[in-house]
Design brief:
biotin; Single_hybrid_motif; fatty acid metabolism; OB fold (Dihydrolipoamide Acetyltransferase, E2P); 150 residues; alpha+beta; fatty acid biosynthesis; lipid biosynthesis; 4-stranded antiparallel sheet
Length: 150
């Protein structure tokens, strides 16, 4: 089955705009269900907050700075869909990329699984990976920054 990324994107936007947790569309034999787990989204936020106090003692006046490193110099590669992010092809394989790696346009950076379909996320340009903003097996939202390439 071929995934209509535009339709998935529209459904994800409807979820957010109407504060829904799930939406399902049927068209003949094709059935698309987009779902967001509100309780799952809280876990990564608490993880990020836990990282901020470690930086706070070093520079207390920069308490609002953790929001800025998420948009560093370089191009953020964003998720084209809602799904689960995987940094490697399987649990026994090394990650596709690591911070500091040089990539070419078209190299696989990671995979986003959506509806049991593994979707490779490719580098849009050549450059150096400066940040990986997601963890392995982390749920991701549409348009969420995943990797930064400088």
């Amino acid at each position: 089955m071929r995934i209509d990324a535009g339709l998935v994107r529209e459904l994800a936007e409807l979820l957010s705009a109407n504060e829904l947790s799930e939406i399902e569309v049927e068209d003949g034999d094709r059935k698309i269900k987009v779902k967001r787990e509100l309780t799952v989204a809280a876990a990564p936020v608490s993880h990020v907050v836990a990282a901020a106090p470690a930086a706070a003692p070093a520079a207390a006046p920069v308490a609002d700075a953790p929001a800025e490193p998420a948009a560093p110099a370089g191009e953020a590669v964003r998720s084209p869909m809602v799904g689960t992010c995987y940094l490697a092809a399987d649990p026994n394989s090394p990650s596709f990329v690591s911070v500091g790696d040089t990539v070419k346009a078209g190299d696989t950076l990671l995979i986003v699984e959506a509806m049991k379909v593994m979707n490779p996320i490719l580098a849009p340009k050549a450059g150096k990976v400066t940040q990986i903003l997601v963890a392995n097996a982390q749920p991701v939202e549409f348009d969420q920054p995943l990797v930064v390439i400088d």
